[in-house]
Amino acid sequence: MFNKVTRTWSPVTGCYHGCCYCWSRRLVEKRLRYISEKYRDGFIPKIHEKEFKKTFKPGEFVFICDMSDLWGSWVSREWILRVIEHVRRFPKTTFLFLTKNPRRYHEFADELRGMDNVILGATIETDRDWMYREYKISRAPLLSERYVAMREIDWARKMISIEPILDFNEYRFTKWIIDIQPEFVYIGYDNYNNRLPEPTMQKTLWLIDELRENGITVYKKTIRKAWYER
Ligand code: SF4
Question: Among 43, 67, 100, which is best to mutate for testing ligand 1, by the most ligand atoms less than 8 A from CB?
């Protein structure tokens, strides 16, 4: 069982989802674009040829594209195929994909088939579509679309990231996660003081217990009181 990313690999960077809490965009715009050739164009999506020279060791747990969403609707099929083909060269390394647009996993079902070392992940921060739009959290596909895409994909190794957690409907959100049947779930609060519509800590702890009681492995990230409780 894996709970710790040992390495990140970013062959594609940049993202158009526009999440209000995006730390990657801030890091790139405030700092990286001035000091790194890779980020010279800021957060505009780009593929980086040099990254395909990198190799991975057996036993490593690699999070792919932590500075973008590789499966965003704007990413070309060619870029995604490049990444999948490179991953295919390292069958003894575990790779984690994470997206807010898991519908695109379905497009690549044939290319991904047989890659048992690949975990397909999705971020689902809450089950409340209305709140997501009202608070202008992100332009990414709605939570309910992500849920359906993850539930329907025929893949043994899935994960869900509930990070940063947003307030939720207890019964429905728990059901969504159980329906998806992930290998594991990450749950954590926002780390960057964005004052998001968070659940109380008690509610989050309840969710963790409920998922565990239903046989789901949960790894706690930052668990704390909501900003309005402090
Ligand atoms: S999906 Fe990730 S990389 Fe893209 S804007 Fe949102 S937080 Fe940033």
Answer: 100
Contacts of 156 (CB under 8 A, 6+ apart): 116
Please indicate whether residue 94, judged by its CB atom, sits closer than 6 Å to ligand 1: no
Give the pLDDT confidence of 3-37 residue by residue, as tens digits: 689 999 999 999 999 999 999 999 999 999 999 99
58 lines ligand 1 (CB under 6 A): no
Task: Check if CATH label 3.80.30.10 holds for domain 7-229.
Answer: yes
In sequence order, the β-bridge partners of residue 220 are 187
Domain ranges of the chain: 7-229
Tens digit of each residue's pLDDT (9 = 90 or more) over 106-130:
999 999 999 999 999 999 999 999 9
The Cα 22–Cα 92 span in angstroms is: 31
Instruction: Give distance in angstroms: CA of 74 to centre of ligand 1.
Output: 13
pTM of the predicted model over 0.85: yes
Angle between helices 201-213 and 170-180 (to 10 degrees): 40
Helices in 89-153 by DSSP H: which ranges? 103-107, 109-112, 129-134, 143-152
Report the separation in Å between the CA atom of 226 and the middle of ligand 1, taken as the mean of its atom positions.
22
Q: How far is the CA of 203 from the centre of ligand 1 (A)?
A: 25
Atom number, ligand 1, closest to the C-alpha of residue 21 = 7
